[in-house]
Amino acid sequence: MAAAADMSAALPQLVDGYTKQTGQTVKLLFGSSGNLTNQIRNGAPFDVFFSADEEYPQQLIAEELALKDTLYRYAVGRLVLWVPGDSPLDLSKLGMKALLDPSVKKISIANPAHAPYGRAAEAALRHFGIYDQVSSRLVLGENVSQAAQFVESGNAQAGLIALSHALAPALKDKGRYWTVPLDAYPTLNQAAVVLSRSKQQDAARKFLDSLRRPEASSLLSSYGFSLPAEKR
Amino acid sequence: MNWEAFWLTVRLAAIVSTLLIAIGIPIAYWLTYSRWRWKFLIEAAVALPIVLPPTVLGFYVLVALGSRSPLGRWWESLTGHTLAFTFEGLVIGSLLYSLPFAVQPFAASFGAVDAKLLRASASLGHSPAQTFRRIVLPLSKAGLVTGFALSFAHTLGEFGVVLMVGGNIPGVTRTISIDIYDRVQTGQYSAANQTALLLLIVSFVVLSIVYGLNRYGLNRYGLNRRPGVVGPWR
């Protein structure tokens, strides 16, 4: 299964639970959704694709590379502004305007060219009217995990990253975050889909079904994914 | 065709290969003439970037030279910014990354200079430094050109380190190989194709010049790189 980088902490746990129940093992890999989509177009041997937005799976469905009836919006991803623990910035007071502070020399975001979180970050910066002021300080991670790593390692002073990373053990105690309001960027409807080339479509469908169980939903929400509003 | 990325990369490679002439010659000199018994350890260390994955180098630049490390803090207090995401950061990463491609040809050509010439020079009253400047360096021209060109071409093709520490900033750290990668990732194959072809041609031309010079150009003046054969003094 290939998954958007924001699932890098939650999905292994979901898979663990699944493996314990069914005895089936699953191999995981992570990248930016655009990157993975491109790999799928070029014949990557994945069974399931977890995208950070719905657009990429829809494109794959239109190209008949993914099965339309398997499309499942399993969560909504959230964007946060994250700073390391030693940062002097008061995020709760300043919100996005914290990025205008002169101590913020580099701001890491995912690459908007192929990462939905990168596009969300750009949209949010525009929403708050500070994009032009900060654009020269943006550094682009290959995907949202690398954007998180840039700021976690202290090489960037602030980052617009996934809430699921801010809540994951690797970052949890190392910094503070401010949740970017949902109206500041197009909703990150996370969608999963079974791929047409998969030779294990039944098992792939079963895995997606297992995500509908309450345990899976509560694990996802513990990583900050809100559940989609519509009926499942 | 992203000319900004192209010229940025050419500038990076030119700076790195020029600096490597200055850094590489003393290292190669020491490697050639030192009789220290543990010299092989230094030789191994210099050759490391040939075998190490660029990700290892990228990781160290990011973490060991990042703002959490003493070295990184020192750099930050000096320049006001971290090494990652800057052109200087790429220069430092590339210096390490391309070091053996300069030092090894340098050392090989120094070592190929006939020891009889060195003794003759010394017997005529030249200091080791004078001998090096007036005998060894001119006879090593082919090795110096090779080292310069190989480190230039190697830096042109650098990818892993830049991907890890560059931050993909247009005009600063978005090199030609990153530009190709981004275009492939977003399905712009024809743009990637043009850029890849240009890089292929430039690299081929640089290497052809190196091998051509070694084969025909420098030998004509008696500056042979083969050991023991030294033109005008034969």
What are the SSEs and their pairings?
The complex is a heterodimer of chains A (232) and B (234).
Chain A: E1 2-4, H1 10-22, E2 29-31, H2 33-41, E3 48-51, H3 55-62, E4 72-77, E5 79-84, H4 91-94, E6 107-110, H5 116-127, H6 131-134, E7 138-141, H7 144-152, E8 158-162, H8 163-166, H9 169-172, E9 175-179, E10 188-194, H10 201-210, H11 214-222
Parallel strand pairs in A: 1-2, 1-3, 6-7, 6-8
Antiparallel strand pairs in A: 3-10, 4-10, 5-8, 5-9
Chain B: H1 3-33, H2 39-51, H3 54-63, H4 70-79, H5 87-111, H6 115-123, H7 128-139, H8 141-156, H9 160-165, H10 176-185, H11 189-217
Describe this protein with a few key phrases.
heterodimer; A: 232 residues; D-Maltodextrin-Binding Protein, domain 2; 2 domains; 5-stranded mixed beta sheet; 20% strand; B: 234 residues; mainly alpha; MetI-like fold
- H/E topology pattern of chain A: EHEHEHEEHEHHEHEHHEEHH
Average pLDDT taken over every residue of chain B: 87
Number of β-strand runs of chain A: 10
H-E order of chain B: HHHHHHHHHHH
Q: Spans of chain B with pLDDT under 50 lasting ≥5 residues? A: 220-225, 227-234
CATH homologous superfamily heading of chain B: MetI-like
**Biggest interface pair, counts:** A-B, 21 and 21 residues
Number of separate structural domains of chain A:
2
Total DSSP helices of chain B: 11
Architecture per CATH nomenclature, i.e. the level-2 architecture of the largest domain in chain A: 3-Layer(aba) Sandwich
According to CATH, the fold-level topology of chain B is MetI-like fold
Overview of the molecule:
The complex is a heterodimer of chains A (232) and B (234). Helices cover 37% and strands 20% of the residues of chain A. With 232 residues, chain A is an alpha/beta fold. Chain A folds into two domains: 2-76 and 187-222, Periplasmic binding protein-like II (D-Maltodextrin-Binding Protein, domain 2); 78-184, Periplasmic binding protein-like II (D-Maltodextrin-Binding Protein, domain 2), CATH 3.40.190. In chain A, the strands form two sheets. Chain A has a five-stranded mixed β-sheet, sandwiched between helices. In chain A, strands 7-6-8-5-9 form a five-stranded mixed β-sheet. Residues 220-225 and 227-234 of chain B have low confidence and may be disordered. Chain B has helices spanning 3-33, 39-51, 54-63, 70-79, 87-111, 115-123, 128-139, 141-156, 160-165, 176-185, 189-217. Chain B has a single domain (3-228), classed as Orthogonal Bundle (MetI-like fold), CATH 1.10.3720. The longest helix of chain B is centred in the N-terminal third of the chain and has 31 residues, at 3-33. Helices cover 73% and strands 0% of the residues of chain B. Chain B starts with a helix and ends in a 17-residue tail after the last helix. At the A-B interface, helix 2 and strand 7 of A face helix 10 of B.
